[in-house]
Design brief:
two-stranded antiparallel ribbon, 285 residues, single chain, 2 domains, 5-stranded antiparallel beta sheet, alpha+beta, 9 strands, Aminoglycoside 3'-phosphotransferase, Chain: A, domain 2, globular, Phosphorylase Kinase, domain 1
Length: 285
């Protein structure tokens, strides 16, 4: 860090799941370090991190509340050993009331509108790449009936998703990618920004609410009520895809030693049960 003018840095790990998130105390800076698997191309992560910085700046320029790049040192990407990192402002967490249904709608809608005019080149279905990688790994493992059912559902969705109209999306807009700050909730984690099916970010936001709290949760109800009848089949497909992807990716990460295996298994069983319910009718029945 000394080459960036940062002296006597004490790293504090804030997160160690998909990527390594480290606060560089005593500075108000957070490093996002890409975790590479053995067969990952390091240049892929350099390009992905550079793109993430562009997206964050674009959204900030449009008034979307995001965690911004550090203004103390160059953001990067910076080479670190055999991987890459970017540097962001550190936000001191504060206690905020839970988002109401209306607040959740407004928060997601602001994000979706901010992404809608992002004109730089966006890769199609880049967020879905995580599902493809997870599926490839899970196929190679000895797995139980629940994983087999999830993989069967994945195959059907994977075949259809390539025919869907695509729109700019955050890609991973779930509740865990909102940080509480003294100025309100702020979005983080733009590495999966890509062209995705319509309503992908809305479906991403409510996916775990649906699995762990059901369709009667106020946030879920608010989102469902906001979807006009002609758009309901598109939303239901996006939610189905997101509910399939989440446990697959979390399970693959956990089996690699980079996540919570108990949570991934619980999410898997809830997803399988929900997909049975979803395939028996409409969310609005």
């Amino acid at each position: 860090m000394e080459n960036l003018g940062l002296q006597n840095v004490t790293p504090i790990v804030l997160g160690d799941a998909g990527n390594l998130i480290v606060r560089l105390t005593p500075y108000p800076i957070v490093a996002r370090v890409a975790k590479r698997f053995d067969d990952d191309d390091p240049d892929f992560w350099r390009e992905k991190w550079a793109y993430e910085v562009k997206v964050s700046q674009h959204l900030a320029d449009r008034g979307v509340p995001v965690v911004q790049c550090s203004n103390l040192v160059p953001t990067g990407p910076h080479k670190v050993a055999d991987t890459w990192m970017t540097l962001w402002e550190y936000i001191e967490p504060v206690s905020l009331p839970k988002l109401s249904g209306k607040q959740a709608i407004n928060t997601i809608t602001a994000l979706v509108k901010g992404m809608s005019d992002f004109r730089d080149l966006l890769l199609p279905l880049e967020a879905w790449r995580n599902a493809n990688q997870a599926a490839e790994y899970l196929y190679s493992t000895k797995h139980d009936d629940s994983i087999s059912r999830l993989l069967s559902a994945y195959e059907l969705v994977n075949e259809r998703i390539h025919r869907e109209p695509l729109y700019p999306a955050h890609g991973d807009a779930h509740r865990g990618n909102l940080i509480s700050s003294s100025t309100g909730w702020r979005w983080i984690d733009f590495e999966d920004v890509s062209l995705m099916p319509k309503f992908w970010d809305y479906a991403s936001f409510i996916g775990n609410f649906v699995l762990f709290h059901g369709l009667r949760h106020p946030v879920v109800e608010s989102v469902l009520q906001s979807i006009a009848a002609p758009d309901q089949p598109s939303f239901q497909f996006a939610l189905e895809a997101r509910v399939i992807m989440a446990p697959m990716t979390n399970l693959a990460l956990a089996l690699h030693g980079h996540g919570d295996l108990d949570f991934a298994k619980e999410q898997l069983h809830r997803a399988v049960d929900f997909l049975i319910t979803l395939n028996s009718g409409s969310l609005w029945d």
